[in-house]
Known about the structure:
Elements: H1 6-12, H2 40-45, H3 50-64, H4 70-79, H5 84-98, H6 109-112, H7 114-122, H8 130-150, H9 165-178, H10 181-194, H11 197-208, H12 213-232, H13 238-250, H14 258-273, H15 312-315, H16 319-331, H17 338-356, H18 363-377, H19 382-402, H20 415-423, H21 443-448, H22 456-469, H23 474-491, H24 495-513, H25 520-525, H26 539-549
Helix pairs in contact: 3-5, 4-8, 4-26, 5-8, 7-8, 7-24, 8-26, 9-10, 9-11, 10-13, 11-12, 12-13, 12-18, 14-16, 14-19, 16-17, 16-19, 17-18, 17-19, 18-19, 18-24, 20-22, 23-24
Amino acid sequence: MGEPTRREFxxxxxxxxxxxxxxxxxxxxSSAAAFGGLTAGQLAARPxxxxxxxxxxxxxxxxxxxxxxxxxxxxxxxxxxxxLAELAAATLLAGLEDxxxxxxxxxxxxxxxxxxxxxxxxxxxxxxxxxxxxxxxQVYKQSQAAMATRSxxxxxxxxxxxxxxxxxxAELAAALDEFDLEAADAAVTALHRTAPPDVxxxxxxxxxxxxxxDVGHHPIFGTAAFRLLDLLGWQHAEPLLRAxxxxxxxxxxxxxLAPHVASRGLARRLLAERPxxxxxxxxxxxxxxxxxxxxxxxxxxxxxxxxxxxxxAALGESSGNALAAMSALLRALPPELxxxxxxxxxxxxxxxxxxxxxxxxxxxxxxxxxxxRELAARSTDRELQFTALFQAASWCPLWRKAFGGPHGDxxxxxxxxxxxxxxxxxxxSPSASTASNSSRASRAAELLADHxxxxxxxxxxALLRALxxxxxxxxxxxxxxxxxxxxxxxxGREAHDWKFFAVxxxxxAADVHAGRPADPLPLVALTAYLRSxxxxxxxxxxEARAAxxxx
Length: 551
């Protein structure tokens, strides 16, 4: 496929390009709960009639159709009336059955990517919404094939001997502390079957944020699991919760647990020294993602003002330095702002680490810190919330080391430097191709069409100026997000493309939902990992688009 011109690229943004609107099924919503939960025991029984038989037949289709035939076969089912949500649920359950959740590497990303897939799909024109889910199906089939040739694995049947309901929570905590897989599997199965969701959540939350293993994938897995349960229903949680526990335990006891001890101890000391931090805040720690909008009546978060630095320079080379820097920042803040501004500072450092070294591994600082923030938002336990924040801080030097240390011009990777360079540019104005529009809404999107054609940092500075000039115009942000989303859908070729985009896009969406201007700096940081406009369209997605269009 030839490189698109700027006009062709802009023409693709914001309109459906698939011929059949009949395939539109809306966002991946809670209707997927109708798919039902399929345990290993049910799979072994394989009923052949009724709704259970239909669901198992769909799961067999997903698991047994060859990789090279899955897209046209899935499109044929969608055309015949299969709800998109059910295809998504079958993809999830197949991933849980067939893909070992440890190490949490490329293979298991067929599960970890699904919340981002759903988030992106929900923002697409209806006729394009199947494309992300067909991409997800492809990723699952690729993971399945890799597992089959390298290390075949299947989620074992649920344990038959379970602890009593009254002891399940305590036994789960003890088993996870001891990395006892058999006991943890039995305990989480019992807890799921006998306890309400909030009790299950409270039991698992502390373990989602304790381990830096695999550059911070534990909180990513925890957040993905809880989001998926929000979508699919907790009554169908057993395979997902069991896979989560398997992933935590199979990691084993390593030195990646050490920062958690320091983070939890510092959180306790901070709360003891500043009791006001333990009080309910008028600014709830709602994640900047899709879990929940701000509560009604929540006052607008004031600007941070001049704060002690929590920056790459303050981190040094140790987690201890990072914890000290974050602690100093929190002590200088009003109590009601501490968590919000603390996470914002850590997220800013994560983006700068990515700008320093824009490679696949580097996206994990941003995705893990957002996951820690979302996990903290699910709890009302202040100690757990501050522990999550201190984990985000203490992991920053570990990420920098894992990424290979700083690369290139460190000053150029500073968000402050980007902002200064953007402010030095003349104000943007509509270009000739967008002059007929009533606003500058297309200007940033037009600039994004140059991604891959011009030097990355120069493009970032120009984009930041354009978005800054249009801060009061929500159309500008929406047009830019749509342009970036179009690049992602057409050219994204692995799970991290989708996961990183969703982190940034959901933050912008939450800002818009709350009635405040979206922060342009994270939106501009998308260019550090977004595929180039010069890259060819991803083959399986192009195939899916053609199949949906009937060509």
